[in-house]
Amino acid sequence: MPGEAGARRQALVGVVGRCAEAGRRLDAQAAALDQVRGLEGPGAGVALDVAEGRFRGLAARTVAAHATLAALREHYAPSATDPVTGSVEQAKDRLLFATAHLNATRRSIDAADGDGTARNLRAAEGAVAQAETLVTGVERLAARLREAAALVPAALTGAEAELTAARHGRSRTSLATGELNARLAHADGVLAAVREELTGALPYDPLDALRRITRAVDRLDVGRSGVLDTAALLVARTSLDSADDFVTVHRGAVGPKARALLSEAARSPDTGSRTAFEADTAAREARGLAERDVRAHGTPYPDTTTIGLPGAVLGGILLAEDPDGGPPATFGGPATRGRRHVRAPG
């Protein structure tokens, strides 16, 4: 339709305008960005000290995360730890890469090589940041699983109350008797299965249990209780964080479809269970698409002898087309992005 075409053009013009404004702001702050990054004078040495301090702290956290993940695998079903499978190994890989580039930064500083200093320091900082994302993901999942396990009994109680309300005709939708009975039977089955898991000898996945409880009861539409809203939101936030972490540490391989879906999922997961359900579904789908992108991308430079290089490329820390290089040595907008930084005299 002509009107729709006009609306699309207007929307695109707005996007272009906002991008241009962002570029102008970056250009205006280019010199300040250089200084913040420590690219002038003795600032590089200070920035290196900070990066090395972060590295040492994160190395200790990575060791602890290894033990945390082992404990999670003992206490919960395999599906509970699937989102962080391989995270500790990837964090160690990023730290090995960071080690090499921190050492190279020190050599570049000694040689008064400003471009080399900036390039290696940025690569090291990027690797440390991604290692922190991976380790934080393990720590956060451990906390979320404990929270979910504590919430499951209350969620079961809240769900039972809603089933009772539905049986007494307090559903807010005009379901036919047969359809209502079918949904009640399904919800009864879900709650019974969760109770069996909760009291059984085998480990279970408390986040998945909350997902099943809240989704089964939501189909009855009797007015959600507070505990079920809390449970749905916890599940959604966990899925969003997991997908966001995966995209962050694989940004060199993840395509726009997964990114767009994740962005949409993250818009408003706090406005109620219905939105939380939608956010959870979209985030899980986004992560699935991102994982598919990474599989299709494959392992860059599988035969390289450079420690951590494939992971750095997948993480977008280094550019795939230049395995020995990295991002430009300075930041900026369209008018300043390609400049080469010149050290201040003295």
Strand content: under 5%
Cα-to-Cα separation, first versus last residue: 64 Å
Percent of residues in helices comes to over 70%
Biggest sheet statistics? none
The global form is: globular
Number of helices: 12
Give the number of DSSP strands.
0
- The helix-and-strand class reads mainly alpha
Integer-rounded radius of gyration: 25 Å
Task: Give the integer mean of the pLDDT values.
Answer: 83
- From N to C, what is the helix and strand string? HHHHHHHHHHHH
- Which blocks of ≥5 consecutive residues have pLDDT under 50? 319-329, 341-346
Describe this structure in words.
- The structure is a single chain.
- Residues 319-329 and 341-346 have low confidence and may be disordered.
- The termini are far apart.
- The protein has helices at 2-28, 30-36, 43-75, 78-81, 87-110, 114-167, 177-199, 206-218, 226-249, 256-265, 273-297, 309-314.
- It is globular, with a radius of gyration of 25 Å.
- Helix content is 72%, strand content 0%.
- The protein is mainly alpha-helical.
- The protein contains twelve helices and no strands.
Short description:
With about 350 residues, the protein is an all-alpha fold.
Write the layout of secondary structure elements.
Blueprint: H1 2-28, H2 30-36, H3 43-75, H4 78-81, H5 87-110, H6 114-167, H7 177-199, H8 206-218, H9 226-249, H10 256-265, H11 273-297, H12 309-314
Key traits:
mainly alpha
